[in-house]
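User: My instructor asked us to take a sequence, write out its structure as tokens, and then describe one feature of it. I'm not sure where to start. Here is the sequence I was given:
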Amino acid sequence: MTQPDMTLIDDALLRDWPLPMPSDGGDKEERGRLLVIGGSRQMPGAVILAATAAMRAGAGKLAIATGESVAQLVALAIPESRVIGLPETEDGGIDASAARTLASMRGRLDAVLIGPGMQDEPAICEFVRALLPMLDGVRLVLDAAAMGVVCDAGKDCGAGFLGHSGAEVLLTPHAGEMAHLSGASKEEVSADPVRMAQRMARQWQATVALKGPTTIIAAPEGETWKHEGGNVGLAASGSGDTLAGIIVGLAARGATLAQAGAWGVALHARAGDALARRSGPLGYLTRDLAAEVPMLMHRLGTDER
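Assistant: Let's start with the prediction itself. The structure tokens for your sequence are:
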């Protein structure tokens, strides 16, 4: 049963919590300006999945920043986007100096996603720290290795510095990542995900979406939501990248991070269910999830069954 201090994410909640909608005459700026930072020589597809999902979630103006070695590939894969090539480390990460490359975008972004497909966690953490001062007022989603900034050894250890950065931040760990970030064991995280998500949201001063068969979303102030659903077919490479993209796309449109997280988790699970009904529960591709999102949003937003 749902705990008294926790809200169940279901169709009724989503219909009572409608997403921001652009005006009939609105342009792409009204639907949000979004930057997705990710990818690497070994995993260029992750940033493609995330950016595609963000557009499917309704974001209006997309820019992608990725390593110079794969920027042309990414640009060809997503012709809707501006693609910026960033300097890379020898280990395939984004060099911290890349923050200066993105300085011209300061004040011109509504939402940013950092992390899908990135390598070299120490370099990523340094890059995120260099970029944070430029993201005042931005809705920021940290995914994958970029979340490591909260436990960067000897540098605040995640104790609330995100809350003082000026950005609104959401992190998207699964149980294994939460164990790494919090210092707890994976078994401890799995035994009480609600308590863990709430505790780390307070400590980090950021919204936490702790992913799993039951996903817990906890805000720093203590509000908590729970989603149950999806299917085993979602447990596949690229699924988390797609989820992060959906969430940041909704945030770019003007959803709060808690709302974007709740809707994003629900849409991701329902997209998996739709594919499972057509293709079977195993073997559908995570690249196909994003295409299900627009109609799912429409049906939930118009009370269609």
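For the description part of your assignment, you could build on this observation: The chain has a mean pLDDT of 92. Try explaining in your own words what that tells you about the chain.
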